Amino acid sequence: MTADAPVVVVVEPQTPGNVGTIARAMKNFGFTDLELVDPPEITPDSEAYGFAGHAREDVLPAAETVTFDAVVENYHTVGFTAITNEDARRHVRFPFRTPRELADSLARVETRTALVFGREGTGLSNEELERLDEVCSIPASADYPVLNLGQAATVALYELRTLTLGPDREGTQLPDVERERADEADIDRFYDFFAAFLEGVEHREHKREKTVRMMRRLVGRAHPTEREITTLTGLFRKAAERVAPRDESR
Amino acid sequence: MTADAPVVVVVEPQTPGNVGTIARAMKNFGFTDLELVDPPEITPDSEAYGFAGHAREDVLPAAETVTFDAVVENYHTVGFTAITNEDARRHVRFPFRTPRELADSLARVETRTALVFGREGTGLSNEELERLDEVCSIPASADYPVLNLGQAATVALYELRTLTLGPDREGTQLPDVERERADEADIDRFYDFFAAFLEGVEHREHKREKTVRMMRRLVGRAHPTEREITTLTGLFRKAAERVAPRDESR
Fold first, then answer.
1. Considering the domain boundaries, does residue B249 fall inside one?
2. What is the CATH number of the domain that holds A18?
3. Is B172 inside a domain boundary?
4. ipTM, two decimals
């Protein structure tokens, strides 16, 4: 999977801090190869290292300085820009894909891709975008769609993490929660104890039925864990005993 | 829609720069209300303003200082953390939702929600998380899942933008590209001219058929725009005339 992990290219970054931020996002989302076109000097005491987190140990020191020509020549290139063209009358910034669409499309090809980000102030120029193969744009507020360079790269790499970490939660820190929903049989057993409990506190059958139905909806849409259902079942079993009518003749 | 836009809460941010980064992400994704628990001093010449972009004009100066108690009391609260519990044996950090799942779930309730982010070094404490209603975690590399505060908020607000901007591309800077695919009739007309062109350069009919099929696949999956098809049609109509056999007896 990681054999095809895209490389990240930053064209003329001006502040070392943004390079560090991008390196950190790369490590957070499983990317390793950083290439810089005409970067500022990046020394171990610069903000680049300060912002890189653990990426200061690998991604950042391994960053390579390259030319824009080499990037165009060696990779399938995707240029990121906040500013798209409105329609197909101009092709420099149109058509474009969103990062999510890009992730879907790259998942189905075997190619070495370069994700190309532009300089802080002005992004990628039209002349640069014309030489790249695809355009990608992060959907943001029409009022202020221009993200900071480091934040744009973070969102893009977040969306493209499936290319490096694998689909869904594979390769992430998150446990697979699919298994965590309690067994339906155990959930139903809880409703039985809850109904038994209600018999002790509410004598009107139609009210009891409505209340069980409410509980079924509440618990149902919360997708309870085994542990939650066990706790609730224990609680209401005990409570049902406590509130049971003492009148033996009943 | 924006009446229910979540507020963003940052608990004990330590560096003004991160507050500025968060303010910028808020403005980029349509959020307006920033509340800070025990923040550092934020002066107009601090990094907060330097990192805020256009949010220095509204989101950042309007930020309010609040108490954690007030946040718990006034809102449906969602705590963000990179570190979840593994299963339901402990409930402090489990179950959790991903930002995308959270966006889906919040889209269907009418409530004022607070998105709560913790301090840079250690995030939200267990004591704080216990008082919040839901837990949200950004999927990231198992090797290094801890995002920088500003980057975590950026990803979260990006995913939750549908709550403020509306579904899909509504409210974003991106044009609605659905309309942009060329008419099927126009695309088919292009294939006719391409086939006519091939008659002039390839005399073996089975080869021509294969080549038309290849072009249909290539263009088909690229979802051509009207403009692209018009250009291609014009080009191959002209080319077909040029390569047409001159032998009138044919």
1. no
2. 3.40.1280.10
3. no
4. 0.83
In whole angstroms, what is the distance from residue B151 CA to residue A21 CA?
Answer: 8
Domain range enclosing B225: 179-243
Number of domains in chain B: 2
B21 and A148 in contact (C-beta within 8 Å)?
Answer: yes
User: Which of A89, A151, A169 comes nearest B139 by C-beta?
Assistant: A169
- Alpha carbons within 13 angstroms on the beta-carbon side of residue A75 total 26
From the list A96, A142, A148, the residue facing B171 with the nearest CB is: A142
Classify residue B199: in a domain, yes or no: yes
Spatial separation of the C-alpha atoms in residues A98 and B177, rounded to whole Å: 11
Query: Cβ contacts of residue B29 below 8 Å, gap of 6+?
Result: A140, A141, B157, B158, B160, B161, B164, B165
| Residues B112 and B201 placed together within one structural domain of the fold | no
Q: What is the number of alpha carbons within 13 Å of residue B84 lying toward its C-beta? A: 24
Whether B37 and B154 share a structural domain: yes
List chain B pLDDT tens, one digit each, 250 residues.
444 799 999 999 999 999 999 999 999 999 999 999 999 999 999 999 999 999 999 999 999 999 999 999 999 999 999 988 777 677 777 778 899 999 998 988 888 999 999 999 899 999 999 999 999 999 999 999 999 999 999 999 999 999 999 988 889 998 876 667 788 899 999 999 999 999 988 889 999 999 998 998 888 878 888 888 999 999 999 999 988 876 655 4
Q: Quick one: B225 and B121 in the same domain?
A: no
Structure tokens at B7: 């507020």
Question: B155 and B46 in one domain?
Answer: yes
A143 and A236 belong to one structural domain: no
Distance from CA of A204 to the nearest CA of B (A): 32
* Chain A contact set for B89 (CB, 8 A): 227
A20 and A82 both lie in a single domain: yes
The answer to whether position A25 is within a domain reads: yes
Give CA–CA dist A142/B164, Å, rounded.
Answer: 12
SS (H, E, C) B26-39: HHHCCCCCEEEECC
- Contact list in A for residue B30 (CB cut-off 8 A) is 141, 143
Q: Strands B76-80 and B113-117, how do they pair?
A: parallel
Which residue do the tokens 């680049």 mark?
A48
Return the residue in A14, A154, A170, A186 with the most chain B beta carbons within 10 A, the one to mutate for interface testing: A154
